Amino acid sequence: MDCFQYVDPDILNGSIVHMPPKPCYCEPAYLDFLKAHDCTPSMAKNGNLMDNRETKFWFSVLKTECISRLNIRKMKYIDLLRELEEYMDYYNNTRIQKKLGSETPAFRLAELKNSK
Length: 116
Known about the structure:
about 45% helix
């Protein structure tokens, strides 16, 4: 499958792969490829934007705050991966978010776990 040619198989194996609702993604060859790599397909419903709202928001923030400052065409895969990991650590553990009561996601998650 061409769309996975640059993905490290160790990262792909066991992943959830989100797909837009297009007929080509229902082809047996594509689904067999996902099954061979123990991937779980996830597909949005046509016309239901709420399915992807949180994912689209996350990628919008990621592109604006992280990827836009990188020259990804000249980066090695491992360097890009490191930058993304550092950004995700910052986003979850340092970046204050108004929608979470001016707390970090990690703090809010810990709060929720302790309230149970």
